[in-house]
Amino acid sequence: xxxxxxxxxxxxxxxxxxxxxxxxxxxxxxxxxxxxxxxxxxxxxxxxxxxxxxxxxxxxxxxxxxxxxxxxxxxxxxxxxxxxxxxxxxxxxxxxxxxxxxxxxxxxxxxxxxxxxxxxxxxxxxxxxxxxxxxxxxxxxxxxxxxxxxxxxxxxxxxxxxxx
Length: 164
Known about the structure:
Blueprint: H1 2-8, E1 10-13, E2 17-20, E3 31-37, E4 46-51, E5 56-62, H2 66-72, H3 77-81, E6 84-90, H4 92-125, E7 128-130, H5 138-145, E8 151-160
Antiparallel strand pairs: 1-2, 3-4, 3-6, 4-5, 6-8, 7-8
Helix pairs in contact: 1-4
């Protein structure tokens, strides 16, 4: 839950009042965060959508999806082995309605990078490890995750830091 909140959670600041933990052009926040749970205490295996408004997870698809998600990402084994994997998608059209092609090309990726950095920093603080994966087949990720028209932006497997 701490990683979900750090990535895209609700917060309040003195400038904008109610906002989120990462910046968004025009306050549009097109991003969606999912957790692919495999071996997470208290969660059955499956795909969960993070509801930032309430700070809760909602089961989208029950079952084991780590291997299938790994295959969408050119067989990168860290996805299949990680207890939890985070996937960020976006309704890019929401940003494009205001900012056109610049929204797709610049703003949405910039926002996704900020959310990913938040996960990296929180993982480090918690003694966990992660990596940002951008090498995947968009249409396959969309199919495994069942996210409709949302565009996959990154995949981040999370686990305990290796002691090497």
